[in-house]
Amino acid sequence: MSRRKRRLRIDRVLICLLILVGLICIVRFTIYTIYGFKILNQAKKGETVKLYHDNANLWKSTVKYINEDMDELTYTYRNYTVTMDSSYFKKNMNIKPSTENKKITNNDFLKQKGLYIKNNNIMGIASKIKLKLPHYLYKNGYVDLYGIDENSNYILLESRVKVSDKFFTLNIYENYTDYFITYVKLESIKTTQEYVLTEGDTKEIKLEFNPSNATNKKVTYSGYDENIITVDHGLIKAIKEGKTTVKVKGNDMSVAKIKIIVNKKKEEKKDTEKKEEKPKVTQGDDGIYYIDGIMIVNKSYPLPESYDPGKLLPEFMDAFTEMQADAQSDGIKLWIQSGYRSYDYQVGLYDMYVRQDGRDRADTYSARPGYSEHQSGLAADINNPSDSFNGTSEAIWLKENCYKYGFIIRFPENEDEYTGYKYESWHIRYVGKELSNKIHEAGDISLEKYYGIESKYSN
Ligand SMILES: [Zn+2]
How remote is the CA of residue 374 from the centroid of ligand 1, in Å? Predict the structure, then answer.
């Protein structure tokens, strides 16, 4: 072969290669412009590919599934399962958790270090985001998550969330655009210094935490004489006459002491026991119905429109926090899916259900405005408010353990005729440990059955 011929052949090969590269570029450009995807790996039917997109808006309409680690998004597109690396979107979604850019407007948190997350663009797109926590947060082992509403109110959404590594999974909630993750150190515990009980009595230990928004309110009770009392989850049971002291120890080295005196039970006349009447429902000046000091909200006893605690009450949150942490050590993850709901919110919700299913059916699962326990600030839906939650390990754990923390399953199975609602394994109500223990001992019956009261709309 002559040198000229060889050169010609090399040229031809080069030209062919150039044309080929050109064609590939055109095809890729076409795919890119038509579908808007920049494909890194060619997708085959049913396969998973890495895919980036310049227009983050597309994510909004196509996201179907976020994997467990939340670093990839998977969805199906024209028979292709496409996985997107969400790090790209995180960058473009303006999720910049940083302590430098925080604008803390709430006085309770002015000096509080934490992660402030501005989250406008993620709303309605992702259900959760995985964040890396700075050392000063994860070293405590727990964090609190606050949602910040449009009026700059800090609402405690998840408290004492255990962080076993540096990562925190931020669940995206309705109504909040910004979030604040922090740890507030417990300075001291205050309590009634002396309790006087009679043999057989039970009494709940009331603790006051300073600051009240301390993250870790987990305490241990020790040092008492077990022949005189037992203490279980803060509930004292008086066994035998005598005196003893309970040492209350918080996780942040805070300590309090309570003196306990148990008196001998006097021989009671049986007549007086018989005379004891069942407590009756009374209406307070505030328009709220109570029975035996317990707020009652059902189809017979509505809350006034003006009653608006604005959030879940501290007694609910404190008890829930304790329960959430104990559940977690049993491998059960519990979270508040829906807590406080205002009167106005319930107006919209109930109207929607009535339009969807008609009034009669809507009444079996949704409360009319004013009649929802969610307005009380003492009730919440846990994890997943739907029948598919029934029988899950989380639902079973909740049913078996919630009474220890002062909660009851508000609408138990087969109690529709008393409560007026079908079974809701996810809806819990805080009633305090004394009542929750009594209801548990009575067989986890409904509040209505326990007190012998009705729950029926008058019209
Ligand atoms: Zn509910």
Answer: 6
